Amino acid sequence: MSVDQLSAPLTKDQAYALVDAVMERDDLALTASAHENEETGEWFFEATCDSPPDLESFVELARQTLGGKVDFSVSPIDPDFNWVAKSLEGLAPVSAGGFYVYGSHETGPVPGGLTAMKIDAAQAFGTGHHETTTGCLEAINMLLKRKKPRHMIDVGTGTGVLAIALAKRTKSPVIASDIDPISVTTTIANAEQNGVGKLIIAVEATGMTNPTIAQNGPYDLIVANILAGPLMALAPSVGRAAQKGATIILSGILQHQARGVINAYARQGMTLTQKLQRKEWTTLMLEMK
Ligand SMILES: C[S@@+](CC[C@H](N)C(=O)[O-])C[C@H]1O[C@@H](n2cnc3c(N)ncnc32)[C@H](O)[C@@H]1O
């Protein structure tokens, strides 16, 4: 997946006006967000885009919305966001939140007392090594100590690692969705090899849009480890799919982006209950009021 990131310094009002304008345009494959630089107080508009025609339409939309020409810097997204490359880093087993994640190449003994998951990444993201994944596993572990969700969805499932973690611990069905068909087939294979094939319903979907997702909702647990921009764009549909009292676990958020994501979800009735920081990555736990 090749992704461009657009950004421009604007006033706060301009940045939010442009985010609103982009969100009204379903035809643009863009995810947009407004951010304040907490040190300088400057506001930025940021968007990610994965096809050139959408970029051109966006520049025209920005001109119309802001009433003039705006110079956006366009750059390939940080190599850190290359999901597959990231997933192939460090293939030693990883433990987080009482889970032990290892690949089929691993021959060592599985330690007792942990929920073991054999996860093969193939071309999908999610060996368990990235801080966004470990943050989610830790958040899931914290949640499961106090409640047992029954209607669960993992949005942006990658290898299925989080959905499989939930299915193994709760023994309840989990919807595992991803925009990428390779993730769907990888998740099915991983679910089978972890003995939870019957519990994982893997679907190809963008965000919360899919008939299977609608039929199985509303949800008492929604997990989404994607990126700040897409997460902000998803806030209204996550809000509609969440039961009262539901837990929402979000990750893929850089520390300076957390405030924007919290605000976007607060506008849809979800409030922050816990924040986990793993290096520069923030995982949020929220509750639907
Ligand atoms: C960071 S990976 C997370 C994988 C796994 N859940 C984990 O925690 O390791 C993000 C995944 O989200 C998927 N994705 C990106 N945008 C999406 C969207 N709008 N809807 C559903 N999935 C999306 C990507 O294809 C990728 O597999």
From TrEMBL:
<dbReference type="InterPro" id="IPR029063">
    <property type="entry name" value="SAM-dependent_MTases_sf"/>
</dbReference>
<keyword id="KW-0808">Transferase</keyword>
<feature type="binding site">
    <location>
        <position position="178"/>
    </location>
    <ligand>
        <name>S-adenosyl-L-methionine</name>
    </ligand>
</feature>
<feature type="binding site">
    <location>
        <position position="156"/>
    </location>
    <ligand>
        <name>S-adenosyl-L-methionine</name>
    </ligand>
</feature>
<comment type="function">
    <text>Methylates ribosomal protein L11.</text>
</comment>
<protein>
    <recommendedName>
        <fullName>Ribosomal protein L11 methyltransferase</fullName>
        <ecNumber>2.1.1.-</ecNumber>
    </recommendedName>
</protein>
<keyword id="KW-0489">Methyltransferase</keyword>
<dbReference type="GO" id="GO:0005737">
    <property type="term" value="C:cytoplasm"/>
</dbReference>
<keyword id="KW-0689">Ribosomal protein</keyword>
<keyword id="KW-0687">Ribonucleoprotein</keyword>
<dbReference type="InterPro" id="IPR004498">
    <property type="entry name" value="Ribosomal_PrmA_MeTrfase"/>
</dbReference>
<dbReference type="InterPro" id="IPR050078">
    <property type="entry name" value="Ribosomal_L11_MeTrfase_PrmA"/>
</dbReference>
<comment type="similarity">
    <text>Belongs to the methyltransferase superfamily. PrmA family.</text>
</comment>
<dbReference type="GO" id="GO:0005840">
    <property type="term" value="C:ribosome"/>
</dbReference>
<feature type="binding site">
    <location>
        <position position="133"/>
    </location>
    <ligand>
        <name>S-adenosyl-L-methionine</name>
    </ligand>
</feature>
<dbReference type="Pfam" id="PF06325">
    <property type="entry name" value="PrmA"/>
</dbReference>
<feature type="binding site">
    <location>
        <position position="225"/>
    </location>
    <ligand>
        <name>S-adenosyl-L-methionine</name>
    </ligand>
</feature>
<keyword id="KW-0963">Cytoplasm</keyword>
<keyword id="KW-0949">S-adenosyl-L-methionine</keyword>
<dbReference type="GO" id="GO:0008276">
    <property type="term" value="F:protein methyltransferase activity"/>
</dbReference>
<dbReference type="GO" id="GO:0032259">
    <property type="term" value="P:methylation"/>
</dbReference>
